[in-house]
């Protein structure tokens, strides 16, 4: 572990060989640290207050929420970026700035929902963690996201912390997520330190990575990727340490540590484990290609392939033995996305309109379109910079830099998938990984540009560092705004009044009351059929086991059936065989259009033409069916109990 500590020291180690000036006197360094600390403390307080104002204005439907939000974010982010990559910042200052930056960038999600789950997947992970705490059993099936029960790493960690500290499950989860967020930032710094000794490059890489679309909201939510990505970055850093030529015993220790972390990642999140395997594959490939010219890289290439095989075998064994359903869970997303993309290329349907009916301001939408172009410009510049400096860099560093360039290049084809309904979700999730390569590849170019701008102009002592720094900070602001806007819609980012068909606003008082009533009167674990939004609340706060339908279990056929016509025999047989107990009906489905255009699940055979997909008679027909008994009735939500022994009896009239 001493080697890991020495690698971590790259956060603040100043080793830029191009700077032959003597180090700053201690008094001047302390003065700079005091100025940085005071200015960033004030900026953090102002920024946090602006975020609170933004959320309050959004909650009450007032204008200016987005302006206040981004004003609050940038008032701290830009000074933090300046102090992080400033040449005169010493070891402790740079480390403190980066930790403070990580904590501040967790604020948007923390202030968004400090007391309980809000995002779709958070309901599932929160319920899974609570069930482990209550029952002490891993690998329980989850009713909201079927596959997460097979990956208990996050849930076991949260439940263990809650048990040890007497914190609630939600507050234990917040502690885990805050720590993971800080470890992501510091992990990128340590990872960059495996490639370049300049701590300014490492700090720049951390700032650039924080601009990816998942950093502020998606990877700070209660989700298994939020913890797994933090461990993945440190596993990649340990793997690159193993690739470095040194003693066999040290290499074996780093190799073993990497595999241990790979197992932990695999037990936490499937996609992160797959991406880690691919990253090691890129490292091995680039080292192998470089070994054709320099035989000294044969050892690193072999280590890279062994890491690829080891992590890949871990993933394959887990998915084959523990979670064979994972492949079926992931396949439809990519398969449907490719079909839709092919339809677009052939002039057919399958495309989606970006920012359709979005309430995001025009400048945020324009930034979202500009951010990929800015990233492309930076990636091309980083590639040219790598090519020009390839003869000066150490051979292994050159090969590892090439691997990071290839990883970053994966960002651009994934961006095209955002144009398809099924590929959009996968594209967003991939950016958190490909942007890691982008950050590591672009960071040396950023520092080189700043250093070049510091050179005197002619015989004058004037430099262009001020304009260059301002331009880079402007680009930082544009990319952060644009990527966040493209990665998460405003309903997730901003509070507001209850809206039917929105995951983040599904917990209305009426639905919560119905879920609590069923829990208090019938207990936990009842199997029920519900729409997507009722299912979130009944499956989390209500502690039940809802099903919202799938291609193999078309539960929505119950709602689609016209009154007076027989129910499909297949669905009735499935309901009886699988011992479903209750049916939840939200009559708003006949009155309003879902905010995210989904009633039950993505492939539902229900029209989405701007009008409600059901008639009121379709949703009130259950009052007349003899094999359904109404046990709860609210203004919009009704709960029925299945009585399959009454199947075949005549329909009740006048009910």
UniProtKB/TrEMBL annotation:
Superkingdom of this protein's organism: Bacteria
Region ranges (Disordered): 1-28
Keywords assigned by UniProt, alphabetized: Membrane, Transmembrane, Transmembrane helix
Biased composition (Polar residues): 1-12
Keyword Amino-acid biosynthesis: no
Pfam families named in the record: DUF6541
Biased composition (Basic and acidic residues): 14-27
Transmembrane regions listed in the UniProt entry: 30-55, 67-85, 169-192, 224-243, 250-267, 273-292, 304-322, 367-387, 399-419, 431-450, 462-481
Protein name as catalogued: Transmembrane protein
């Amino acid at each position: 572990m001493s080697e890991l500590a020495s690698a971590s020291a790259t956060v603040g180690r100043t080793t830029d060989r191009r700077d032959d000036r003597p180090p700053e006197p201690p008094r001047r360094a302390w003065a700079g640290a005091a100025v940085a600390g005071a200015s960033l403390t004030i900026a953090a307080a102002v920024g946090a207050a602006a975020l609170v104002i933004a959320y309050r204005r959004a909650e009450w439907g007032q204008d200016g929420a987005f302006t206040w939000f981004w004003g609050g974010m940038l008032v701290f982010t830009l000074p933090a970026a300046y102090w992080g990559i400033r040449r005169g910042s010493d070891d402790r200052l740079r480390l403190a700035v980066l930790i403070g930056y990580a904590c501040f960038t967790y604020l948007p999600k923390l202030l968004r929902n400090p007391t309980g789950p809000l995002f779709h997947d958070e309901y599932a992970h929160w319920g899974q963690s609570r069930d482990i705490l209550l029952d002490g059993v891993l690998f329980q099936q989850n009713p909201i996201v079927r596959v997460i029960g097979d990956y208990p790493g996050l849930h076991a960690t949260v439940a263990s912390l809650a048990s040890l500290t007497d914190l609630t499950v939600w507050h234990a989860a917040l502690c885990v997520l805050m720590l993971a967020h800080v470890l992501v930032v510091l992990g990128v710094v340590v990872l960059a330190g495996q490639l370049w000794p300049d701590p300014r490059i490492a700090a720049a890489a951390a700032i650039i990575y924080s601009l990816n679309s998942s950093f502020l909201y998606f990877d700070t939510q209660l989700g298994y990727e939020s913890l797994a990505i933090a461990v993945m970055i440190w596993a990649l850093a340990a793997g690159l340490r193993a690739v470095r030529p040194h003693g066999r015993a040290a290499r074996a220790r780093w190799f073993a540590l990497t595999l241990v972390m790979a197992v932990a990642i695999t037990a936490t999140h499937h996609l992160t484990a797959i991406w880690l395997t691919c990253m090691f594959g890129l490292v091995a490939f680039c080292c192998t290609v470089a070994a054709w010219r320099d035989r000294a890289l044969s050892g690193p290439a072999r280590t890279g392939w062994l890491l690829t095989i080891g992590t890949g075998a871990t993933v394959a064994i887990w998915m084959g033995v523990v979670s064979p359903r994972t492949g079926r869970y992931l396949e439809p997303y990519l398969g449907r996305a490719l079909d839709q993309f092919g339809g677009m290329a052939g002039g057919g349907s399958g495309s989606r309109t970006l920012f359709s009916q979005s309430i995001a301001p025009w400048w945020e939408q324009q930034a979202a379109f500009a951010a990929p172009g800015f990233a492309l410009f930076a990636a091309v510049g980083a590639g040219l910079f790598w090519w020009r400096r390839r003869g000066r860099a150490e051979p292994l560093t050159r090969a590892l830099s090439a691997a990071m360039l290839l990883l970053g290049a994966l960002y651009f084809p994934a961006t095209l998938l955002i144009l398809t309904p099924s590929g959009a979700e996968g594209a967003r999730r991939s950016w958190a990984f490909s942007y890691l390569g982008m950050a590591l590849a672009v960071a040396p170019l950023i520092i080189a540009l700043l250093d070049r701008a510091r050179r005197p102009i002619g015989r004058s002592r004037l430099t262009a560092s001020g304009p260059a720094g301002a331009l880079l900070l402007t680009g930082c602001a544009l990319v952060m705004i644009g990527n966040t806007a493209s990665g998460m819609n405003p309903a997730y980012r901003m509070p507001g009044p209850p809206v039917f068909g929105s995951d983040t606003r599904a917990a209305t008082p009426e639905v919560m009351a119905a879920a609590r009533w069923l829990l208090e009167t019938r207990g936990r674990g009842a199997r029920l059929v519900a729409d997507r939004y009722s299912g979130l609340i009944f499956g989390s706060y209500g502690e039940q086991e809802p099903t919202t339908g799938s291609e193999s279990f078309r539960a929505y056929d119950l709602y689609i059936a016209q009154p007076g016509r027989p129910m499909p025999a297949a669905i009735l047989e499935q309901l009886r065989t699988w011992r479903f107990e209750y049916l939840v009906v939200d009559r708003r489905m006949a009155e309003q259009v879902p905010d995210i255009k989904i009633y039950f699940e993505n492939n539902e055979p229900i029209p989405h033409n701007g009008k409600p997909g059901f008639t009121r008679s379709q949703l009130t027909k259950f009052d007349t069916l003899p094999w359904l008994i109404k046990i709860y009735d609210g203004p919009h939500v009704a709960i029925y109990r299945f009585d399959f022994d009454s199947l075949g009896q005549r329909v009740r009239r006048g009910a």
